[in-house]
Design a protein that fits this description.
This protein is of the alpha/beta class and 428 residues long. Helix content is 36%, strand content 15%. The chain contains 18 helices and 13 strands. The strands form four sheets. A six-stranded parallel beta sheet has the order 5-2-1-6-7-8, sandwiched between helices. Strand 12 and strand 13 form a beta hairpin. The longest helix has 24 residues. It starts with 25 loop residues before the first strand and ends in a 7-residue tail after the last helix.
Length: 428
């Protein structure tokens, strides 16, 4: 068959609006919750045309994750409603043992600039990097997994291990540093943060490789792992151990190397965080609490781990705690802000949504979710850009919503050919 050899690439965007710095980039995504699809979402928010390939009749499991938003007899997960936006949904069985699937998939690859996957065992589907780069020599291939692909090194058995967010948190060293000192346990961070960190590394790698491909005409393969993304953001965790034998430990909410820097329960039951790094902020912080700077010199009471742990440092910690716990959060916010001392309270979604500052920055936007068929509101675009801002051109698609349109307009299949695919487990 090899129909893909005869088709010409259709420039992007063919389906989406023209906006953002990544307009002209087309991304094909074989990814499910959460890292790979969110990398695609980040690219789509800034103009890339994203086609998400989903399994026929099943789709991305992220569509069904609790909690769900219900409208009439339809429901969609809050996470898919939020992050599935700006995508096209094409249902396709990507097992290339089916000749029709192979033709469609390779035709899509020929039309893509980027392919993202987190299926891990792609060879079992008949897919190899070499095959795809032969079809499209400018293609950027981004593999997202827990432990990496053996082509980039490492133990093949470990590379073959399955993973998901908490596994990545644990194996990267991230989880070990979160929580309080023993005997309390380590803390799994909420919000599937390892997945989202991994996605950001993937998006950065893709944009970097895309720029190179535009300059050189040559694509490449990117290997993004949960464990390496989690490890890379751990400040000096590895440098401290490797070069000084300093094994960092959990310390809860209190920063161990300078102060004031801790979280306290305020008089009105909030959790207030005070942070004062550096001599100038330290002295302003003490002044804001009417604590004598001469009694607690910076170098002796707040500048280092030794100072924090000294008798004088411990007494300062007691004074700060007494001040914060004896005042309500609004007073503390106004007081510390007056002296330009960093202060915040741990806030939930309801409290943040009520804050005019967040709305003033257009952080909550409305668009029509395609599954529910109704207008919804979700978090907006980050980061902000002055000349090429991102936008949402449509809400998350219904499963397979764009299959026939993509097959027809992008790949040139006729209505008759598309009809012939149906009932075979290829697209439905």
């Amino acid at each position: 068959m090899e129909r893909w050899k005869k088709i010409e690439k259709v420039p992007a965007p063919a389906f989406t609006s023209v906006f953002g710095p990544l307009t002209g980039m087309r991304v094909l995504c074989n990814g499910t919750i959460n890292a790979a699809p969110f990398a695609a979402t980040m690219l789509s928010d800034f103009g890339a045309e994203v086609i998400q390939i989903e399994r026929p009749n099943i789709g991305d499991p992220g569509r069904f994750q609790a909690p769900k938003i219900v409208h009439g007899d339809k429901a969609i997960s809050a996470v898919f409603l939020q992050n599935g936006r700006n995508r096209l949904s094409l249902t396709l069985n990507t097992n290339l043992k089916y000749p029709e699937s192979k033709e469609i998939f390779l035709s899509l690859i020929k039309n893509a600039d980027v392919w993202i996957e987190n299926m891990v065992w792609i060879e079992k589907m008949g897919i190899t990097d070499e095959m795809l780069l032969e079809v499209n020599h400018k293609l950027i291939i981004c593999h997202v997994s827990g432990f990496g692909r053996p082509q980039f090194g490492g133990d093949p058995e470990i590379c073959d291990k399955p993973s998901y967010d908490p596994i990545g948190q644990a194996e990267s060293g991230f989880m070990f540093l979160n929580g309080f000192a023993e005997p309390q346990p380590v803390l799994q961070t909420a919000g599937f943060i390892n997945d989202y960190i991994t996605a950001m590394f993937a998006a950065f790698g893709i944009v970097s490789a895309y720029v190179n491909a535009q300059n050189t005409g040559k694509g490449q393969v990117i290997d993004v792992t949960q464990i390496e993304a989690g490890a890379r953001i751990l400040d000096d965790n590895f440098a401290a151990w490797i070069n000084a034998g300093w094994l960092k430990k959990r310390y809860g909410n209190k920063v161990p190397v300078f102060q004031p820097a801790n979280t306290y329960k305020t008089k009105d039951g909030k959790y207030g965080l005070v942070g004062a790094y550096g001599r100038d902020v330290y002295e302003r912080c003490l002044k804001s609490m009417n604590i004598d700077i001469e009694e607690f010199p910076y170098l002796e009471a707040g500048a280092s781990a030794d100072a924090v742990n000294s008798p004088l440092g411990q007494e300062l910690e007691r004074r700060v705690e007494a001040f914060v716990t004896s005042h309500d959060s609004q007073f503390l916010y106004e007081n510390f802000n007056k002296y330009k001392v960093p202060f915040a309270t741990a806030r939930n979604a309801q409290e943040i949504y009520k804050d005019p500052h967040w709305h003033g920055r257009n952080n909550f936007i409305k668009y029509v979710d395609q599954t529910l068929g109704k207008e919804i509101e979700a978090f907006g675009i980050a980061p902000k850009m002055s000349d090429t801002p991102g936008q949402v051109w449509r809400g998350a698609p219904a499963l397979g919503q764009d299959t026939e349109t993509i097959l027809s307009r992008l790949l040139g299949y006729s209505d008759k050919e598309i009809a012939a695919f149906k009932g075979k487990g290829i697209i439905d």
